[in-house]
Amino acid sequence: MAVTGPVTQPLRRRIGQTGFRPVWLAALAGLLCAGPLIAVAWLAITGTWTDYLGHIYQTRLAGYLWNTVIVGLVAACLSGVIGTGTAWLVTRHVFPGRTVFQWMLALPLAMPAYAAAYGWYDLTQAAGPLSMLPTVRGPLGAGLIFGLVFYPYVYLLAREAFAAQSADAYDAARTLGCSPFQAFTRTALPMVRPAVAAGLALVVMEALADYGTVSHLGASTLTVGVIRAWAGEGSTPDAARIAMVLVTITFLIFMGERALRRRARQTSASGHRRPFQRQRLAPLAGIAAALICAAPVLIGLVIPAARLGWRALSTPAATGLWQAAGHSILLAGLSGLMAAFVGLALAYAIRTKTLTGRASARIASMGYGVPGAVAALGVLIILGGFQGWLDGAWRAMTGSPFPLLLTGSVIALLFAYQARFIAAAIGPSESALSRVTPSLDAAARTLGARPLTLALRVHWPLVSSGVALAGLLVFVEVLKELPATMILRPFNMDTLAVTAHNFAADERLGQAALPAVLLVLVALPPMVWIARQITASERQRDAIAPSDAFPGLAE
Amino acid sequence: MMLRLPLIAALTAGLGLAACSPAEPDAVVNVFSARHYASDQEVFRAFTEETGIRINLVEAGGDLLIERVRADGERSPADVIITVDAGRLHRAADAGLFQPLTRLDDVLARVPDILEHPQGLWFGFSTRARVIVYARDRVDPSEIQSYYDVASPAFEGRVCVRSSSNVYNQSLVAGMIAEDGAEAAEAFSAGIARNMARAPQGGDTDQIRAVAAGECDVAIVNHYYLARLMNAQDSADRTVGEAVGIVFPDQGQGGTYVNISGAGIAANAPNPEAARALLRFLMSERAQRAFAELTNEFPADPSVTYDNAVLDGFAGFEARELNVSALGDNAAEAQRIFDRTGWQ
Lengths: 555, 344
Fold this sequence. Notes:
Chain A contains 25 helices and two strands. Chain A is an all-alpha fold.
């Protein structure tokens, strides 16, 4: 997508002088966003060393790792099959409802994983209405839930990769006597492998960082180990150490995915591209395809939401839900707004191709793989340290501590959200910005535009939809966020996620249901908008490619 | 594509203002609570109504609350810290987050000694008992008069219990360590791990439902989850409640283990007078009744009467004469026992 070549190369090198370049802002934002993770690493290194790690090593570490592997594998396999299969169906075939399924298949992303877990466990446990099915529980059950709510990452990426693929290899395979399925597995599938791997990396990172789902379903992953070190042993340094094991695994997945993509880029550098002819399915096959596409949406979103909703109907509603919904929308909206601008700044930083700029953007993205509770602990450490420093300095001058600044304020919450989710905002902005060619900058500058005018009048109209998309992705993530919201929020500020969790933690599923359903309802309109925006590439040349719309996928 | 940012901006305007309204001293009390029950909403509402003191509330898990108060240091806005478990209060006390309870002697006089911190840093205002429920049609209650009976070979493959990550199980075994020693507690944990009908999953209510559905024969749960089912509006829930019986274990052999919901005043409370007023109110007859009637907890003040037939039917058991602070002392050891014996 980026314009490269002998003519534009010198110009690109000089973008620093011609374009808007807030590298200092990006570096600061990157450092701030990585702050909580660095604080946790610091705690892990400097905290008191006890024999707890030895004890865990001898008792449960193997189990934690084993469960983590199973949860990750099941989630990856399921989301891989669903995501790739449905993407193949909607990009290469014509069947009833295809255009609707195109965006509808992305919707389960709006369902918080723990809410889907409560719904499915309630349905399938021994006393539930679907007790004839195996109970959704343990590492298999947790992996299943993650596969069902996170497969849209794979779907969106695979869909774009299939759509961008040339028909040559597939047609050649068919001419040489392959069945459609053989041609799919031998030509189309290998070529989308990097995109699928990128989606799977996101799925696995989300699955491994989760606590609510695995604790309810009894799947002791490493995240459970982190929380037990904290809650049971009462040792935050040991919790931080186990968290660092998890962060290392996440980092390896992240690096592996990037390595795979770099290799793939070199092998698919053919200039010629002949677009696909969509195959019209026979009526029966068409109905089967529609059912296959409907199934993941039903299982991942509609059925658990309906179960929770049914529970909500048979229980008196909790009070204060409208207020909680208001808080959810406000916090998520404000975070989305901020993330849009910080993400854009970081995207500008990447565009300058300076080491500082690129490194800040990458460091800022790392927070995505940290379990929420650990990220919250990191934020507390940073805010506490900052407050302590202020207190000390202020006391030296006035003899009294400095007024409490940050914790329990909206600012602390917004900081935590940026640190955790900024990665989701960098990609879309980066992609949008890549449409602004260096020659455009040069032309505008020649005509007398100052850098700020250039950014506002030339760039902004081109990138605004990508920036809005970045903000909305963060909006949905923040709506679902739990631990940081719980501990950093101001007094009397419940959100839907907090309300749902509080009731569910007290085993009042009926009262937890309504806020959970409201959460999905609030998340749905933006999700529909995102999904339609991302899948609009056929309708609109200007659209954002999903490979750029998700964290870890930029470059 | 049209930009939606103005809409978001409009929605979010004014948030900053709402978040930081300064309060007059002692017209307000800041509560950090790990409880989230309907009874508390009612109690807090009544408190404001009677005293005119407004309540600012943050609810979160006990561990996060402790970290927050610790991070905020001497400028922490917390006045009152409430948790649902003695172990968390103990940890907060160890971290120096409480100040001694002064000028509350008349209130504390009504709290049984075993529900108070030995040095007077916190007290329990309501109690919950860790009990055994059993399938009425398959189990004779005489078989399960002690916790240790549930761990005996006779119940192999018949026991449902939630994860040992849960603080209620932790506190139960912590109590056993204090009373019977670590070896006995470890043998108990190993027996439970062997006897499990299924890997631990769900909460206490799910264990009761599983007993009623026949997936297992006995379960160890907190008493109020059963009381809640028996008092439920939903007839299916009441059927579950009727299918199971309840045993308060160790009667005549030391008594049933109880845990508390407890509260203390934060070391750096900016509104200590209001905090004292709230603690006083938590022990008032009105609040004590609310805990019994709305959350099915036993009031800490044994003289309080309430209108809850189910809970009344449970009352009168012999509770363990063990100071609840011992639960906190042994919590970490209890979890290591779980880890060693394979109680997930």
